[in-house]
């Protein structure tokens, strides 16, 4: 049964109509870029550093800001173009400028030109055609660690233009943590300026809101429950993901494929756990084998209770109830110190005890876990 409405809405390349929990950052970028438009016909390029961790929304914010600027330019009857380049795909400055020039006009490109000649041709073409440009360079950290000079060139464009204003409105440098600044010589660092916009990691609540917004577009109604989205949001917000929205979207996408392939009408918590286990297993079969009998027994009880109830976590009383059921099945009549065993399992990284003594298994496929433990008890 098809459970997806539109898989593309979960793609990391999809640009959503609205960008939740980045409204202040969007306002900041629009304020800066609006000022650039108001400086026409004699704009001097503004330098902006956009920083944030993986999945913090840097690329989406950059592309939406560029689209907004183009639309604003059109309203003012100005020719405004945004050129976005991810520098991971380039090996040197001349290859960057070649792609940049060709993105604006093939007429001013020649493979025989040096980097400086390409940049000069670009500035001249912009003047001749009354075209204005916003440049965004993503993954600047990667580039600076391999090649020098680009930051210096792009922050001193008026000098290249003979001291006059240029038709480049702004240059946005996108980085993860600003570490690239340490690699810059003092003249480049000085010319870069200090206009920095930091995107703080998304919290679990913010991740939940963003994922729920995508769920409505990507899945059929009723396929994804609030509990599943909340579970994914919590896993996404905690270390080492630290709010990486791409990770949360991937979990939704692959869990949806798993559920659809299994012929189910909805995504269950164990679909998510199976995906997480395949991405990064927290505990190996060898580590499970080293648990003593009581630990395996209690772990099996936790896993079965979670699977049957389809909850993200359960209370100690529910674990005790399942232990009594398993005792009848396996003939295990031994009195258990349940709290101590739970503490031992948490210390070994098998499970996690939340506030209120709620117990949760971390990134483990419950069905496989139960089969594995059952075969060894």
What's this model, at a glance?
This protein has helices at residues 23-38, 58-75, 93-104, 115-129, 140-146, 150-154, 157-160, 186-192, 204-218, 226-237, 245-261, 269-279, 285-289, 293-309, 316-330, 338-347, 366-374, and strands spanning 46-52, 79-86, 131-138, 168-175, 196-199, 351-353, 359-361.
How would you describe this protein?
- Helices cover 52% and strands 11% of the residues.
- The protein is of the alpha/beta class.
- The chain folds into three domains: 7-11 and 202-279, Helicase, Ruva Protein, domain 3, CATH 1.10.8; 23-199, P-loop containing nucleotide triphosphate hydrolases (Rossmann fold), CATH 3.40.50.300; 285-374, Arc Repressor Mutant, subunit A (Orthogonal Bundle).
- The strands form two sheets. It has a five-stranded parallel β-sheet with strand order 2-3-4-1-5, with helices on both faces.
- It is elongated.
- It starts with 22 loop residues before the first helix and ends with a helix.
- The model has no long low-confidence stretch (mean pLDDT 88).
Write the layout of secondary structure elements.
Elements (H helix, E strand, L loop, with lengths): L22 H16 L7 E7 L5 H18 L3 E8 L6 H12 L10 H15 L1 E8 L1 H7 L3 H5 L2 H4 L7 E8 L10 H7 L3 E4 L4 H15 L7 H12 L7 H17 L7 H11 L5 H5 L3 H17 L6 H15 L7 H10 L3 E3 L5 E3 L4 H9 L3
Parallel strand pairs: 1-4, 1-5, 2-3, 3-4
Antiparallel strand pairs: 6-7
């Amino acid at each position: 049964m098809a459970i997806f409405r539109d898989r593309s809405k979960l793609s990391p390349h999809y640009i959503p109509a609205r960008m939740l929990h980045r409204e202040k950052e969007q306002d900041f970028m629009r304020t800066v870029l609006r000022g650039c438009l108001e400086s026409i016909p004699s704009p001097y390029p503004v330098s902006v550093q956009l920083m944030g961790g993986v999945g913090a929304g840097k690329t989406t914010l950059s592309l939406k800001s560029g689209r907004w600027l183009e639309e604003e330019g059109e309203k003012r009857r100005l020719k405004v173009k945004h050129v976005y380049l991810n520098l991971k795909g380039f090996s040197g400055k001349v290859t960057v400028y070649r792609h940049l020039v060709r993105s604006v006009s093939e007429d001013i490109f020649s493979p025989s030109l040096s980097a400086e000649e390409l940049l000069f041709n670009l500035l001249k073409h912009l003047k001749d055609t009354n075209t204005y440009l916003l440049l965004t360079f993503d993954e600047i950290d990667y580039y600076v660690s391999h090649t020098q000079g680009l930051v210096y060139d792009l922050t001193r464009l008026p000098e290249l233009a003979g001291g006059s204003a240029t038709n480049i409105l702004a240059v946005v440098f996108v980085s993860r943590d600003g570490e690239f600044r340490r690699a810059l010589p003092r003249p480049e660092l000085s010319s870069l300026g200090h206009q920095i916009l930091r995107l703080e990691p998304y919290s679990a609540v913010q991740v939940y809101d963003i994922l729920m917004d995508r769920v409505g577009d990507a899945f059929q109604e009723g396929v994804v429950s609030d509990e599943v989205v909340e579970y994914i949001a919590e896993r996404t917000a905690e270390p080492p993901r630290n709010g990486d929205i791409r990770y949360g979207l991937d979990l939704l996408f692959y869990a949806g494929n798993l559920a659809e392939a299994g012929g189910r009408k909805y995504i269950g918590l164990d679909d998510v756990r199976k995906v997480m286990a395949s991405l990064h297993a927290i505990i190996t079969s060898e580590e499970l084998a080293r648990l003593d009998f009581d630990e395996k027994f209690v772990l099996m009880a936790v896993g079965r209770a979670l699977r049957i109830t389809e909850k993200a976590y359960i209370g100690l009383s529910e674990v005790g109830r399942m232990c009594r059921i398993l005792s009848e099945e396996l003939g295990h009549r031994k009195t258990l110190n349940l709290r101590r065993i739970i503490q031992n399992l948490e210390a070994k990284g098998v499970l996690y005890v939340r506030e209120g003594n709620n117990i949760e298994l971390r990134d483990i496929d419950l069905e496989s876990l139960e089969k594995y433990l059952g075969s060894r008890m």
